[in-house]
Design brief:
Elements (H helix, E strand, L loop, with lengths): L1 H93 L23 H5 L10 H38 L18 H7 L3 H42 L1
Helix pairs in contact: 1-5, 3-5
């Protein structure tokens, strides 16, 4: 009987040790899992911090490019305004017969604006690198406005670069001296006035003026979208970085 009780006691002690071992093992596993989760959380936090730093730099770069584009747009709008003014003067002289108009910039008839926005040129896929949906959408809208300018400007270049300049060459209306360091206008004002009375040139003037106004309109829209995008980026940086 004594041996039986000793056996029971020994078995209970063994089972007790085993239970304690399992509890210890489970506790170790839980601690390891918690450690892994903490490590992953820290790693994700570090990666997110690095990405936000990179994205902030990217947003600042976009903003600087937008500022340069804005200056270019404003300059080109002024230039297009000068060209449009000349068109109106030539219309009044050639079609309406006005004699009291003094043409100040005859060379503008053959001018094409220097349009080179760097925002899209530097990184046409920049929208894909931005997480914020609002910023991404406004970038896409801005790039669409730039594309509209490109398409319209290509048509204007065809009219001015080929047809109007070709017409001026045919009429020998260019001042050769202007290409060799002189201060003369590239286009002879007196001859331009006479040319403005010719129906064929008037048709070219019509096409050129329509496209000049169209390009100016698209640049105006792009300038507005440029401002909107800058404001959206400014708020994003202020609120999330």
């Amino acid at each position: 009987m004594i041996k039986f009780f000793r056996h029971i006691r020994k078995q209970l002690l063994t089972e007790n040790k085993t239970g304690k071992y399992f509890k210890y093992a489970i506790g170790e596993i839980i601690l390891v899992v918690i450690g892994i989760l903490i490590a992953l959380g820290i790693n994700n936090w570090n990666e997110n911090r690095k990405y936000k730093s990179i994205e902030k730099d990217l947003l600042n770069t976009i903003t600087e490019n937008l500022k340069l584009d804005s200056l270019s747009f404003s300059k080109n709008l002024r230039r297009l305004g000068t060209i449009d003014s000349l068109h109106n003067q030539l219309y009044n002289i050639g079609v309406l017969g006005a004699t009291d108009i003094e043409i100040k910039h005859p060379s503008a008839i053959r001018s094409i604006i220097l349009y080179a926005p760097i925002g899209k040129k530097n990184d046409p896929f920049v929208a894909d690198k931005i997480k914020n949906t609002k910023v991404r959408q406004e970038i896409i809208k801005y790039f669409i406005s730039v594309d509209n300018i490109d398409e319209s400007l290509d048509q204007l270049k065809e009219i001015v670069g080929n047809q109007i300049r070709g017409y001026l060459r045919k009429k020998e209306a260019h001042n050769l001296s202007s290409a060799f360091g002189k201060n003369d206008e590239a286009v002879n004002k007196t001859l331009l006035i006479e040319i403005s009375k010719e129906p064929q040139f008037q048709q070219l003037l019509f096409e050129s003026n329509i496209k000049t106004k169209e390009v100016a309109y698209f640049i105006y829209l792009a300038l507005q979208q440029n401002s909107i995008l800058q404001n959206v980026i400014r708020r994003e940086i202020k609120n999330n970085y």
